[in-house]
Write a structure and sequence with these properties.
This protein starts with 20 loop residues before the first strand and ends with a helix. The radius of gyration is 24 Å and the shape is globular. Strands 1, 2, 8, 9, 10 and 11 form a 6-stranded antiparallel sheet that branches. Strands 7-6-3-4-5-12 form a 6-stranded mixed sheet, covered by helices on one side. A two-stranded antiparallel ribbon has the order 13-14. It has 2 domains: 250 residues, 3-Layer(bab) Sandwich (Hsp33 domain), CATH 3.55.30.10; 56 residues, HSP33 redox switch-like (CBS domain Like, Alpha-Beta Complex). By secondary structure, it is of the alpha+beta class.
Length: 344
């Protein structure tokens, strides 16, 4: 909290805000901190690279929003990776965020099952994802331990999974709201937009964030279920976030600052510097070539079609083509030739 002797600047919320930004904010009176993300060209570029059915694109857009909200909390150079693996028509979502601001994403799905789900009108997250798990991985390089949290997906939404992750793994009271939609314009077709807001209850006294123990499971019948009375400040913050509508998160005419002020103006909300977000894939011809050289010669021989090896990046759909001799492991060849050379 700021020192009582420091006077913070007060100003009206900005009327406009740039797309593809994350706005951190804090409400000291409620011991709440949060982030608000607004995505326009970045999420449209990611989704437009693939010919995904609309329900698949929408869920991948939500996963991008969630990943940006969580990935921008990383203080060091590193990656935040969100991945689902389920038995539903939408088998996998992968979003890779590289600090400080680059994101890429892709999806794998069963075309026939997704088409059947659309025909039946079962395009909610639970129906498309089915059951499986959601993993969130923080990778801060070789000198730091890699951390991964896993929560089950049991027919609910990605928001439900995020809430369960923070409840069971981080034990931080958290609420997330996300929205993805198509912006239609005359003569320009449609463009994807996305937005999301995350708030967390972070008081200095850890006793104020106590949560109920997990369900006793197979404990004897009659075993009392542990309950904890929630802190009033968190109850209020959570109630305010529940009022956020999809249109508010998507409307470019409602700036990020204006939306945060609309929600928390009674408690003197503070905002911090925006962070820009860009859609950027980390693939390159050099990295693909190095990857191919790691395969055995026999494996590379089986990759040759029409006299060349073709590799397409799943994230950005860029296609790389190589002549077979160009990706031959010359180091291994030289070593083999040296071993076969007779001694004088």
């Amino acid at each position: 909290m700021p020192s009582p002797n420091i006077t913070l600047p007060v100003r009206a919320p900005a009327e406009t805000s740039a797309d593809d930004t994350v706005l951190p904010f804090a409400i000291e009176a409620l011991d709440v901190r949060g982030r608000l993300v607004r995505l326009g060209p970045a999420v449209d570029e990611i989704l437009a690279r693939h010919d995904y059915p609309v329900p698949v694109a929408r869920l991948l857009g939500e996963a991008v929003v969630m990943t940006v909200l969580l990935g921008t909390t990383i203080k060091m150079e590193g990656r935040f990776i969100l991945q689902t693996q389920t038995d539903g028509p939408l088998r996998m979502l992968v979003v890779d965020f590289r600090s400080p601001n680059a994101v890429r994403a892709c999806a794998r799905y069963d075309k026939a099952r997704v088409a059947a789900a659309i025909e039946a009108g079962k395009v909610d997250a639970g129906s498309l994802l089915g059951r499986g798990h959601l993993a969130m991985t923080i990778d801060q390089g070789t000198e730091n331990n890699r951390y991964q949290g896993v929560v089950p997906l049991e027919g609910g939404s990605l928001e439900d999974a995020a809430h369960e992750y923070f409840r069971s793994s981080e034990q931080i009271p958290t609420r997330v709201r996300m929205a993805v939609g198509e912006e239609l314009s005359a003569g320009a077709g449609h463009r994807w937009r996305a937005g999301g807001i995350l708030v967390q209850f972070l008081p200095r006294d850890p006793n104020r964030t106590r949560v109920a123990d997990l369900h006793p499971g197979d404990a004897p019948e009659g075993t009392p279920v542990h309950t904890v009375t929630e802190d009033d400040a968190w109850v209020e913050a959570r109630a305010l976030i529940s009022t956020v509508e999809d249109l508010e998160l998507l409307d470019p005419a409602v700036s990020s600052e204006k939306l945060v002020y609309r929600l928390f103006h009674e408690h003197d909300v503070r905002v911090f510097q925006n962070r820009e977000i860009v859609a950027r894939c980390s693939c390159s011809r050099e990295s693909v070539e190095a990857m191919l050289k790691n395969f055995s010669q026999d494996d590379r021989d089986h990759m040759v079609e029409d006299g060349e090896i073709s590799v397409t990046c799943e994230f950005c759909s860029t296609n790389y083509r190589f002549a077979p001799d160009a990706v031959r492991d010359t180091t291994a060849t030289t070593a083999a030739e040296t071993a076969a050379k007779p001694e004088n």
